[in-house]
């Protein structure tokens, strides 16, 4: 190998080393630029807003609960004013030979039977005292379309009939005494 060939090979190696060095420099510089551009640029003075966002959400939740707790919006018919609710207890003799009576209640809200609404649901506990013997009967889920009612044999003498009515969570009571 002569001098020219070895100089040529050394020149090519030097050129290759310089090319690799330039490429490494470009790669590291681009990598640094990519890292810089992918870092988020939000917050307050370089700080994350996660804590502030959590505090805002917490305050909003507290305000929502407070408003719903003390300022509820009515979503259905209310029977909370007890002066607007009355109960009619009706009884009708069905068979006089065996003292069979039909017992029924009709709740009136603002003097309208069943409040004129499908949303009123009533449960009735009948407490019937026949000459000292007490029986109880339940009717559940009565409404304007299913008014219920029970048939009951009453004893000769004094019969006390109580109807304990639950209307939208409020309890009302109506009673009558029948002498047979």
Automatic annotation (TrEMBL):
Respond yes or no to whether keyword Transmembrane helix is given for this record. Answer: yes
| Residue spans crossing the bilayer | 6-28, 49-67
Name the UniProt key words of this record, in alphabetical order.
Membrane, Transmembrane, Transmembrane helix
- Identify this protein by name: Uncharacterized protein
């Amino acid at each position: 190998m002569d001098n020219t060939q070895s100089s040529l090979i050394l020149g090519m190696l030097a050129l290759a080393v310089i090319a690799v060095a330039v490429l490494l420099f470009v790669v590291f510089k681009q990598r640094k630029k990519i890292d810089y551009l992918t870092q988020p640029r939000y917050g307050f003075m370089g700080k994350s807003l996660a804590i502030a966002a959590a505090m805002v959400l917490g305050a909003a939740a507290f305000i929502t609960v407070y408003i719903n707790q003390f300022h509820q919006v009515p979503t259905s018919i209310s029977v909370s004013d007890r002066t607007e609710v009355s109960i009619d207890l009706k009884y009708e003799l069905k068979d006089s030979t065996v003292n069979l009576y039909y017992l029924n209640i009709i709740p009136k809200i603002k003097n309208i039977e069943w409040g004129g609404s499908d949303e009123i649901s009533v449960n009735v506990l009948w407490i019937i005292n026949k000459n000292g013997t007490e029986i109880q009967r339940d009717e559940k889920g009565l409404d304007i379309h299913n008014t219920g009612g029970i048939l009951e044999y009453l004893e000769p003498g004094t019969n006390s009939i109580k109807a304990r009515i639950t209307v939208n969570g409020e309890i009302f009571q109506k009673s009558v005494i029948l002498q047979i």
